[in-house]
Amino acid sequence: xxxxxGLPGAGKSTVLAAAKNTGYIMKNYGDLMYEIASKQGHVKxxxxxxxxxxxxxxxxxxxxxxELSKMTGKVxxxxxxxxQTPNGYLPGLPYSLLSKLTVDKLVLxxxxxxxxxxxxKADTTRVRETNIEEIxxxxxxxxxxxAAYSALTGAPAVIISNRQGKxxxxxxxxxxxxx
Amino acid sequence: xxxxxGLPGAGKSTVLAAAKNTGYIMKNYGDLMYEIASKQGHVKxxxxxxxxxxxxxxxxxxxxxxELSKMTGKVxxxxxxxxQTPNGYLPGLPYSLLSKLTVDKLVLxxxxxxxxxxxxKADTTRVRETNIEEIxxxxxxxxxxxAAYSALTGAPAVIISNRQGKxxxxxxxxxxxxx
Amino acid sequence: xxxxxGLPGAGKSTVLAAAKNTGYIMKNYGDLMYEIASKQGHVKxxxxxxxxxxxxxxxxxxxxxxELSKMTGKVxxxxxxxxQTPNGYLPGLPYSLLSKLTVDKLVLxxxxxxxxxxxxKADTTRVRETNIEEIxxxxxxxxxxxAAYSALTGAPAVIISNRQGKxxxxxxxxxxxxx
Lengths: 179, 179, 179
Fold this sequence. Notes:
3 copies of one chain form a homotrimer.
Chain A: E1 2-6, H1 12-16, E2 25-28, H2 29-39, H3 54-70, E3 75-79, E4 82-85, E5 88-91, H4 95-98, E6 105-110, H5 113-122, H6 132-153, E7 157-161, H7 167-177
């Protein structure tokens, strides 16, 4: 399994789009959470995922981990390195989850903070304000999480910088990891 | 349990003071170490804690972990993210300790390096010299430790910047974590 | 066991040379890998180590871990914090290996990025191009790995900066760790 993570505004989806027709199955962690949480009757809408109490959240996360651990074949898992919330940075791959998975590569897609800021400002659907220090802190924290995940699993930590005007380069680097 | 850590000079105690009358029990890791080490006859004064040999230190740490793991109710644990010693940065929350605890939040209180330097220089009780590069390195190392602790426990990593003139803001952010 | 790691061009070998006649046994992780891989018939030349498939690599790594875990006495293990490959940063001390070892200190030898760049450019045996951003990223990633290894083992994380003209200082700091 190849795990792909990215800062909001780093262009993860665009880089991931390059993996079409490579034989990899794409799985989105948030979709799996919603699927299982709604099947278990905890939520009716995706927005309610964040509002589940900690015990329920852990139960659902554990079920997602079990489902992922059963997957065979070439899988790309699309998730977050860490999620910025008012209550701090939530790890996207806590050890309780990681220890269930067979990870080949851990890929973090980022971009220079200035470019992320510009992209976020251009995104009119985005409500929350942001500033450059906040983006730098999140990027820095993400690299630390990435190294921790890599130390725990032994899988290599890959950082792909998706700079303005260099999308094709980022996609090529990503595709080279799938071989 | 909420674990609060901070760089010396970041103003951890002042931020923690805001938690009075919130129903949380405050526990200081160093106090617990001293309590147990003196009860077991290893030390007579707090200064001797650092001089215990590694085997004794691990034994006492393990006993502290056991005591903390038995605590029920709302607890704030006041400790270090890492301790700067002549022999390197000692992790405040090694996995052997963390794995015994039920951690809700991991809070790191820091401040801009320039402000920490100024505060340390103004502190006449402080013997050891310090410089800005050293403070930056320690802050950087602490953020990496914080992410590792968060990856191991699944608890969110919270960074509270306690800037000059913004103490109330830092306290408010801390109080919002206790709800 | 004391584990010493360093960025290529940081001058790890020169700092390590100071440990001659201190009673420590020096072990190089790469040498051990080659020794075991060739004994098991996987490789004939050292260059082939990188080309082993993942399953074989893990098998050999596990055997190296077993051998290291049996070592008694004072050992210095010379290895990498992370190895920069086209497929990302490979952790030098994945948890599967670390959990077998009794680690006293984790030492990372680095140097300012500008100096590493200059040293690498002067090294005519080096084929691969490099730039300052790449060196900064690797150094940053290494510090995150170091903190993760330290959190996992409880061993202190030591960073020794081997600056131009300050080799003796770096060696003295290293020697002070061996006492």
